[in-house]
Design a protein that fits this description.
The protein has 147 residues and is an all-alpha fold. It has one domain (13-135). It is 48% helix and 0% strand. Bound molecules: zinc ion. Residues 26, 28-29, 31-32, 45, 47-48, 50 line the site of zinc ion.
Length: 147
């Protein structure tokens, strides 16, 4: 394994890995696409050969997407409900379309970020973890914090 200073492709921090994943790039190298379909990660990165079949994002990306959408939509919903001169049924339709569009727009970045988070922390068999690899101290299989 090359020393960390000789591996500029590895993210320097969790934030860098999360940003790569949220942008749909491979969290490990940042060179290739992470997704082969809207929410389907590639099995292996074509650039760095990282195995992404170990990711288990499950329901966490929709949770993040709905959580953020709810907080962003609170303002428009309160405005339309309290002060808007437009009819309530039109306001409701506008809010539903805005919420659905926002939630769908956030879903893939949330999944990419979740995959990056799991890889960085060595969850679900990502050994060595992104953190260990970036620090240049790979742990043997079975000694990760969530293995
Ligand atoms: Zn890669």
């Amino acid at each position: 394994m090359l020393a960390p200073e000789k591996r500029p492709d590895l993210p320097a921090s969790l934030t860098a890995a999360l940003l790569r994943g949220a942008k749909g790039q491979c969290p490990r190298c940042g060179e290739a696409r992470l997704f082969r379909a809207f929410l389907k990660p590639v099995d292996h990165c074509p650039s760095c050969h990282q195995d992404w079949t170990k990711q288990r994002a499950d329901d966490f990306p929709p949770y993040i997407s709905i959580f953020i959408t709810g907080h962003i939509m609170a303002g428009p919903i309160i405005y339309f409900g309290a002060e808007s001169p437009i009819p309530l049924w039109i306001a409701t339709a506008i809010c539903l379309v805005m919420a659905a569009a926002l939630m769908l727009a956030l879903l893939q970045p949330a999944k990419g970020g979740t995959v990056a988070l799991q890889w960085w922390h060595g969850m679900h068999g990502f050994v060595p973890s992104g953190h260990d690899e970036a620090a240049g101290a790979a742990r043997p299989a079975g000694e990760g914090p969530w293995s």
